[in-house]
Amino acid sequence: MAAGNPYTVKWGIMATGGIAETFCKDLLCDPKVRDAHDVRHEIVAVASSSSKKRAEEFLKTIDGAFDAKTYGSYPELVADPNIDIVYVATPHSHHFQNAMLALEAGKHVLCEKAFTVTAAQTRKLVETAKAKNLFLMEAVWTRYFPLSIQIRKRITSGEIGTVYRTIGDLSFNSNAAEGKGLSFADSHRMINVDLAGGAILDLGVYPLTWVFQTLYHLQPEQDKEAPTVVAASNKYTTGADENTAIICQFPRHNSLGVATTTLRAHSDPENDAVPVIRIQGSEGEIQVFFPAFRPLKYKVVKKNGESQLVDCPIPGDPARNGWGHGMFWEADECARCLRDGKKESATLPWTESIVIMETMEAALKQGGIEYPELITTDVYDPKSPLNTGNQ
Ligand SMILES: NC(=O)c1ccc[n+]([C@@H]2O[C@H](COP(=O)([O-])OP(=O)(O)OC[C@H]3O[C@@H](n4cnc5c(N)ncnc54)[C@H](OP(=O)(O)O)[C@@H]3O)[C@@H](O)[C@H]2O)c1
């Protein structure tokens, strides 16, 4: 690579759903618009589990990467020698088998949250990436936002003193217009246990992200303490959790995290009336506003009453009709790690992904939530219907 040329990463996209579309539109934004001059992204292949035609339609939807190869199956995608890294954007039920498929084919992997359904699956992914000397990252995009980076720096610099507590919520009012049901069909991935549905794995991971990036990630390396977890869930008729509260206690660090999520009420029904994350220290607190996964502003409130509101807008690319969702920052992180030969991101190391998955697993267990064997096994099967598209 000539000096000054940006490092290019070639992406293979696994799945053609909602988040794959959003992520790909971000990959197509000019990195210079967000002041990233050292890396760039190319979408070189897209696969749908249903048909090659669906993958072709996807390129029209994202309005770009028209030269990308299109495949009608995931095994064909991972065999493409032109791909550096596979973005796994299937339902979480599929993540373990799909990410293993890519790793076994020698591809680096960025896998959507929730990383897996069980902690053993996350551990197996990490072992495999390590053994094969491949990069692997859980796609918790919020951690790579300038807003998150600023907040972690403010905490480290002692601006709000010793942090004793982080409270976070991500909830949506998904009540059906009539009756006591939810607005999703029972088959929808949000509440279908065959697709690892439920509030914890889909939404709870975000308030937990705030608990972890403020109370766990910033603990000194030599004194890392995983939380003890107390949780309760209310179950929906499908067996998925619809309303969950998780307490994470870090006794040695004298801190507590509380993460809540529900499909029955909204985090902030009045829009900006309440902070959805509060990071509370001895000298003040940092308040983050809705939504926990894509916050655009935060407020620092000091003990002496001083306060500062900080806007952190997401830059839009004028050449892409102003598009910019904020997923490009995690993509840039992948690019820089690949360029520098790193196998994991320091912002979300493997050990931390494992502890987060252990926390969610403990919450699911205490809530009595059970998922089928097909999606909880940690035995990789390339012929699993989750890989071959028959499920
Ligand atoms: N980072 C974020 O902000 C964010 C936001 C939303 C979702 N997510 C995560 O991204 C993942 C996908 O969510 P999504 O909202 O994109 O879901 P979605 O719109 O339902 O898309 C999922 C895609 O997965 C593929 N798929 C393969 N087997 C499937 C099956 N049996 N049932 C349904 N889909 C199947 C399908 O694409 P093909 O068959 O065409 O390949 C489908 O379009 C989830 O793990 C979710 O938690 C992350």
What does this structure look like?
With 391 residues, this protein is an alpha/beta fold. The chain has 2 domains: 134 residues, 3-Layer(aba) Sandwich (Rossmann fold); 166 residues, Dihydrodipicolinate Reductase, domain 2, CATH 3.30.360. It has 11 helices and 14 strands. The strands form 2 sheets. The chain has an 8-stranded mixed sheet with strand order 8-9-10-7-11-12-13-14, with helices on one face. The chain has a 6-stranded parallel sheet with strand order 3-2-1-4-5-6, with helices on both faces. Helix 1 links the parallel strand 1 and strand 2. The radius of gyration is 20 Å and the shape is globular. The mean pLDDT is 97. NADP nicotinamide-adenine-dinucleotide phosphate binds next to helix 1 and helix 4. It comes from Hypocrea atroviridis (strain ATCC 20476 / IMI 206040) (Trichoderma atroviride).
List the helices and strands and how they pair.
Elements lengths: L6 E8 L3 H10 L11 E9 L4 H11 L6 E3 L2 H5 L6 E4 L3 H13 L3 E5 L6 H14 L3 E4 L6 H11 L6 E7 L29 H18 L11 E8 L5 E10 L4 E8 L14 E5 L2 E5 L8 E6 L4 E5 L16 H12 L10 H17 L6 H4 L8 H4 L3
Parallel strand pairs: 1-2, 1-4, 2-3, 4-5, 5-6, 7-10
Antiparallel strand pairs: 7-11, 8-9, 9-10, 11-12, 12-13, 13-14
NADP nicotinamide-adenine-dinucleotide phosphate (NAP) binds next to α1 and α4.
Enzyme class: oxidoreductase
Catalytic activity: D-xylose + NADP(+) = D-xylono-1,5-lactone + NADPH + H(+)
EC number: 1.1.1.179
